[in-house]
UniProtKB/TrEMBL annotation:
It catalyses: [(1->4)-alpha-D-glucosyl](n) + phosphate = [(1->4)-alpha-D-glucosyl](n-1) + alpha-D-glucose 1-phosphate. Allosteric enzyme that catalyzes the rate-limiting step in glycogen catabolism, the phosphorolytic cleavage of glycogen to produce glucose-1-phosphate, and plays a central role in maintaining cellular and organismal glucose homeostasis. One of its GO terms (molecular function) is glycogen phosphorylase activity. GO terms for biological process: glycogen catabolic process. It holds the Pfam family Phosphorylase. This is Alpha-1,4 glucan phosphorylase. The keyword Glycosyltransferase applies. One of its GO terms (cellular component) is cytoplasm. It is found in: Cytoplasm.
Amino acid sequence: MHGLQALARARTASGDLENAIHDHLLYSIGKTTAAASLADWRMALSRAVRDLVVDPWFETTRRIYAEDRKRVYYLSMEFLIGRLLEDAVLNLGIEDHARRAMYRFGVNYDEVVDDEPDAALGNGGLGRLAACFLDSMSTVGVAAYGYGIRYEHGLFKQRFREGWQIEQPEDWLTQVHPWEFQRSESVYPIGFGGEVRQKEDGRTVWEPAETVLAAAYDTPVPGWRGRWVNTLRLWSAQATQVYDLEPFSRGDYLAAAAPAVLAETISRVLYPDDSTPQGKELRLKQEFFFTAASLRDLVRRFVAHHKDIRKLPEKVAVQLNDTHPAIAGPELVRILVDEHGLEFDEAFLVARGCLHYTNHTLMPEALERWPVDLMWRVLPRHMQLIERIDEAHAVSTHAANQPRPDSVKIIDGGNVRMGDLAFISARKVNGVSALHTDLMKRTVFRDLHALHPDRIVNQTNGVTPRRWLAGCNPALASLLTEAVGHGWETDLEQLKVIAPLADDAGFRTRFSKAKQTNKDLLTKYLKAKLDITVDPTAMFDIQIKRIHEYKRQLMNILEAAAAWNEMKRNPSAPFAPRVRIFGGKAAPGYAMAKLIIKLINDIGRTVNADEETRDRLAIVYPPNYNVSMAEVLIPAADLSEQISTAGMEASGTGNMKFAMNGALTIGTLDGANVEIRERVGDENIFIFGKTADEVTEAREQGYDPSAAIAASPRLAEVVEQIASGLFSPEDPERYRALVDNLRGHDWFMVCADFDAYYAAQREVDAAWADKNAWARSAVLNTAPMGWFSSDRTIRGYAKDVWEVDARV
Ligand code: GLS
């Protein structure tokens, strides 16, 4: 029995699944039940579950062809998909059977699920967003491919040695990845360097000096109940020649293996920088490698069924996730001109008809720029075309004698500006929250926006409520289902129904009980994995995200220290008992972020050792924060810290996950916090600090952090304690650079916002004292989160950007 039928049966009878697991264990893994390890059981279960996805997957493909649907190609350097087994089981609706089947084999389902390594093919929000979008595209029925890189090593593992971050390589692929299918027939040669020649017939050909193969690996992405299954296609780099025979025969095995090693380097590791590009040649090669392979693949698919390549935009919508795949513009033009014989102008129109670009950050240092000489060396034909695109854009927007501002030039100051290239090559450009889109129009893309006023649109980010509510928070999910019935999993607006229940004492109690269940689970998790003991009745106050100065983990820990000082000075002051939890990695080359990690751990060490305050304050920093840790932390949070310098966090998506799970937010008016406040209401969120416009104004007026410190005795005290080595007696000078920066520069306005933050935290303390009111606010955070479902986001893209069907 196969396919949809098997899936339907698997939902009603666990026997089939049990047999399938047993068969896979025996015949795919080659183990008996007696000899099977936990990993073997996981492989067998994963394979059995994967089998259930395959026929719906083919069925989806048949429908796409039958209906000749326009497809979306989501190009992203990062897909932070995390674990897949639990998610697939949840989406297919077979959890009870999977549990029962494993139980019959005498194996603990939770341990099996927990054995799966995270697929950490991304750094943070941008990569996780791509993963949520995959889930939603399959759930709402958008015909889509995700295209990315099959990194051999995902984001590094973080350890702490004496409180310092240590990075260790991540190795998820050392075990078989049971979800993927290798597609040996889908392999494309990708060139680098070499020369561009003019042929006698007038055609231009690029003759690369070096060629690497891009080999496809497909992972099916089932949507809710397996009704629609899209594909995540990841490219792995392979050498054209496995080894060089000549040095091999001489016995020089190293030299013989060199070509393969070099080629494979391209998909070896994920660059561990979030929002701050490194500008390394290998990174440029990675970008071109996966973009070129993806475009060739989609053009091949189009040409196989359609005659006229000029109609490409009718069937193809490419989304560029940030500027990383921005080379898609020139590459698609190259394919159309050099391989399909179109004139440049027409080719550019066709390419622009297909391409769309999402901007994810406004920080000037985050916008990719590639030196022109590097581009000429690595991608000579593309560099020619970039010049053509730049010229054509100039001609179409400016009269010959009119000066062109630098801000609308793709090539400027010896660099190719990838943001401008992406903007000019795209039919639509979007920001990721209302505030961010507005700032895009007013800042980085001001002049381009003036030239193309219809191009920028907003698509506020969202997160999948399957993984981030139904999956990670069964306690709350079952309460919601009781209250509103099933259906909210794919129509999160239904949760609105619980808003009036915020005034129902019985419902509030059950809501709080679900929260307490999750807090108890987190307490156990911290004990079991890290031997950390926390009080599960205290407020769980959580900041989890990449460590970055603009996200201001520093302000959080400074405030914790100030609160500690105050508790000691005034033992009867009404501080709510709190566990302040931090989680997140710093880019290995980001010295200040690593120093902030050390400071959190140093202050934590001092504060946690203080018997006087132990009942009110604990600071916890579990290492190696990742997607699966987030799934444990978020459901257990009472307070969500979203405290970035206003105007700097494009959207945030953690903020949405927390609110969905009934945490109250303390935050600035930044990114999607603004839209969260609009929905939960002013009285159910703690907003403080300067607005984006006020930040800009303060900077323009010559902001002086030392004045802010002088005006705040609490802040001054903490800064002095750090400077004098109170938290680092073994090395009092440790924080010199950090303190100097705070006193003399403080670009991210920690000092300017400190007092407002301290005051907002005291409001939080006061609110916590009234458990009923707190629970009411928590319900009113979950209720209006429909807006932040990535299903809503994807429907928005489908309608306003891609112009594709969203229909299962
Ligand atoms: C980011 C932004 O920093 C986040 O605010 C945003 O939520 C995310 C997804 O749009 O994109 N940009 C980036 O480079 N990394 C991110 O997480």
